[in-house]
Amino acid sequence: KPDDDVAVCAYADDITLVWRNADSASVAMTELQAALDHVGLELARPKCVLVGGAGVAHDEVSAAAEKLAVVTKPAAVFVGVPIGNTSDARALLIAQVKEKAKLLQGAWFLRRPMAEHAFLRHCGLATRLTYVLQACGDGVVNDSVLALIDHEEAELMRHVFGVYKQCVTATHLDIASLPCDAGGFGWPRVCDIGLGDGAMSRQRRNVGG
Fold first, then answer.
1. For residues 185 and 93, what is the distance between their CA atoms, to the nearest angstrom?
2. Using CB atoms within 10 A as the burial measure, which of 10, 12, 21, 100 is most buried?
3. Which of 71, 74, 28, 23 is nearest to 53 (CA)?
C-alpha cells in the first residue's frame, strides 16, 4: 500500500520487505501473512531476518524484531548479495569469495588442465562474482576484498600449469587473461573487467546512460 511506505522485493520464494518505520513494518507483515493464508501457507517467523538500515539505532531494530517475532542480524544475504552493516556485509562477501574459489578448486581432482582451463574461461570467479560485486552496497567492496579475489584467481590460474606453477609470474597471468584473439587464454579476472564497489559500478552505468 502506498500510504504504508513499504517496498517489496521478491524473487521466487525469497522475499524482502523494506520500510521506513516499525508501524509500516507491522502493516506489511500483516498483509504478507494474509496473502500467505489465502494460499494455505504460513510465515516462518523464526527464519525471518530483520536487518537495520544505515543510521537506524540498534535498540529500535531490536524492538521492531521483538514485536514482529523475527530475528535480527547486522547483515544478511538476499538473492546472493550481502546487505546490512558495511563491515558485516563485507565479512559475508569474503566468505562467498572463499566458498566460490573452493568450488572451482574441485576441478583440481580431475587432474585435467584443459578442464580447469574451461572452468576459468567460462565460469571463473569474475563470472561468478559479477552480479554480487555490482550489487553490493557502498563501501562493502574494499581493497582487502579485491586483494583476496586477486589471490584466489591467481591460485586457480597457476594450478593449470601443474608442476610448472611456481614458475608462473604475474606477467604470465596478465597474458593468460587476455582474450584468445589477443594471444591469451581468455581467463577473465575481476581486476581486468573493472568490477569493484557497487557504488562505482552504479556511477559508471549512470554516466554511460
1. 28
2. 100
3. 74
Single-letter amino acid code for the residue at 32: L
Across 20-169, the runs of DSSP E, i.e. the strands, are 49-50, 71-72, 75-78, 81-84
**Percent composition of the chain: helix, strand, coil (DSSP 3-state, to 5):** 60, 10, 30
What pTM, to 2 d.p., does this model score?
Answer: 0.81
- Closest C-alpha to 93, from 205, 190, 203: 190
Coil/strand/helix, residue 76: strand
DSSP state of 137: P
Collapsing DSSP to helix, strand or coil, 12 comes out as coil
Give tens-digit pLDDT for 123-167.
999 999 999 998 998 889 999 999 999 999 999 999 999 999 999
Cα separation values, 80 from 44, 149, 205, Å = 20, 17, 21
Sorting pLDDT into bands at 50, 70 and 90, what band is 12? Answer: confident
Q: DSSP secondary structure string, 22-62?
A: HHHHHHHHHHHHHHHHHTT----GGG-EE---TT--HHHHH
